[in-house]
Amino acid sequence: MGAPESLLAAIDAELARCAPFTGIKALSAPVRAALAAVPREAFVPAAERKRAYVDRALPIGHRQTISQPFMVALMTELLELGPADRVLEVGTGSGYQAAILARLAGQVFSVELIPELARGARAALDALGIANVAIRVGDGAEGWLDHAPYDAVIVTAGAPALPVALTRQLAPGGRLVAPLGRAHDHQTLTLVAKSADGSLIETALLPVAFVPLRSHPPPKT
Ligand code: SAH
Questions:
Q1: CA dihedral (64, 12, 26, 201) positive or negative
Q2: d(CA 9, CA 112)
Q3: What local confidence, expressed as pLDDT, does residue 199 receive?
Q4: Ligand 1 pocket, CB under 6 A
Q5: Which of 40, 96, 117, 176 is at a distance of 20 to 30 A from 64, taking alpha carbons?
């Protein structure tokens, strides 16, 4: 079992509060079902397990975090996934966001810079029998060209500007969501829609705070 009613209610409250900025008023039935099905506790370190169903980001080691459930829900809603969609995720982290995407889309391709996190995410997904997530260790700013184009792209680390490879690998009609901004405390959750003719329409939605998109793994501590 995944998110209990208490956490789903907290997410709904936060979605309602932010709706004037995001246009998302409440959880849709499919995203709600995905959150209710995926056990977040399987993606957090043992020491954090008692907080797994609180609406907060939590440390997952290597100075990285598993995103706040509200943010996972919001970004997932914004992608408007269909069952046959192919999704690119930049920043696998714990694998939790990928597991949610995997219930709503056909295939998820996720890129993680830190090998240990990629291994941990793989193990957690395998333990739950989630078979439609592929993980690659590398710099997600380059996307994952082999499987492009993607119907949806989700970036779970903040960058000053959107890496051009990611919009190139987005299919016409596709949607991309990413935290963009110069510093940790000046990021804006941004939705980018690619029209049928390939032009990009960018909408700034909400102030957010994500760990930075890096080009090299951080030094070990
Ligand atoms: N989606 C994750 C949240 C992870 S936090 C989850 O559900 O748990 C962001 C992740 O992005 C971190 O694991 C970090 O190591 C990773 N990251 C940072 N820069 C990256 C890059 N250039 N390419 C791929 N992953 C990156």
A1: negative
A2: 31
A3: 97
A4: 64-67, 90-91, 93-94, 96-97, 111-114, 117, 139-141, 156-157, 211, 213-215
A5: 176
Tell how far the Cα of 156 is from the centroid of ligand 1, in angstroms: 6
Q: Report the separation in Å between the CA atom of 196 and the middle of ligand 1, taken as the mean of its atom positions.
A: 29
**What local confidence, expressed as pLDDT, does residue 203 receive?**
97
Full set of structural domains in the chain with CATH: 3-208 (3.40.50.150)
* SS3 annotation, the chain: CCCCHHHHHHHHHHHHHHHHHHCCCCCCHHHHHHHHHCCHHHHCCHHHHHHCCCCCCEEEECCEEECCHHHHHHHHHHHCCCCCCEEEEECCCCCHHHHHHHHHCCEEEEEECCHHHHHHHHHHHHHCCCCCEEEEECCHHHCCHHHCCEEEEEECCEECCCCHHHHHCEEEEEEEEEEECCCHHHEEEEEEEECCCCCEEEEEEEEECCCECCCCCCCCC
For position 221, what pLDDT does the model report? 57
Atom 17 of ligand 1: nearest residue by CA position = 91
Shortest-distance atom of ligand 1 to CA 91: 11
As a whole number of angstroms, the distance between CA 10 and CA 153 comes to: 26
Question: What is the pTM (predicted TM-score) of this model?
Answer: 0.97
CA of 115 to the centre of ligand 1 (A): 11
Which token pair is 106? 């056909």
